[in-house]
Design a protein that fits this description.
The chain is mainly alpha-helical and about 180 residues long. The protein is about 75% helix and about 0% strand. The protein is globular. The termini are far apart. The model has no long low-confidence stretch (mean pLDDT about 85).
């Protein structure tokens, strides 16, 4: 479990845009090491699925996420990323909806889970979501930059450009260059 956890930490560095090449390989190495020690490590399969997203390999991502869920069917992280992969990377709204519904049953209070619903609806081509729902995650966790990013992205995608611009303007402070 520790090796898979280290792999996940390195994968999150990549997800945050830090040290892509070096850390993506470390994430994979740790996940592979975890699988050598524990072939049924759902965490290791999650990491390998997650890193496959960075390579633009959604089918490999789905393969590893399904293996992870076969071992631990109620993992909310895997269910969220599976929803995202089906909805945004593969354009499969039916599959996205199935994984989102599982996610909602597993973790109905998780604000991140609402992103799954929004991704599902968007994959279906619907752009009529209300502004307050599109910003729900950010309203619940305004300290998280990723929540602001997704809220602004969802607003813009649904043609709420003024609201997206205002949200970013109100919450992002430009860094002052004191040089």
């Amino acid at each position: 479990v520790i090796y898979a956890g280290l792999g996940y930490a390195f994968a999150q560095y990549v997800n945050a845009g830090l040290k892509h090449e070096e850390y993506i390989h470390k994430a994979e190495e740790y996940a592979e090491k975890a699988l050598q020690l524990e072939p049924d490590s759902s965490e290791a399969h999650f990491v390998l699925g997650f890193t496959s997203l960075f390579y633009g390999e959604p089918k490999n991502t789905i393969h590893h996420f399904k293996r992870a869920l076969a071992i631990f069917p109620d993992d909310p992280d895997v269910l969220f990323w599976l929803t995202a992969c089906y909805g945004t990377n593969l354009g499969k709204p039916k599959e996205a909806r199935q994984s989102y519904n599982r996610l909602l049953k597993v973790d109905p209070l998780n604000l991140f889970a609402h992103c799954g619903y929004i991704l599902d609806v968007m994959a279906d081509g619907r752009l009529d979501l209300p502004v307050d729902y599109l910003t729900k995650w950010f309203q619940g966790e305004p300290q998280l930059p990723v929540a602001l990013f997704f809220a602004a992205q969802f607003l813009a995608y649904c043609n709420h450009f003024n609201e997206a611009s205002a949200l970013v303007s109100e919450n992002v402070q430009p860094e002052m260059d004191d040089a």
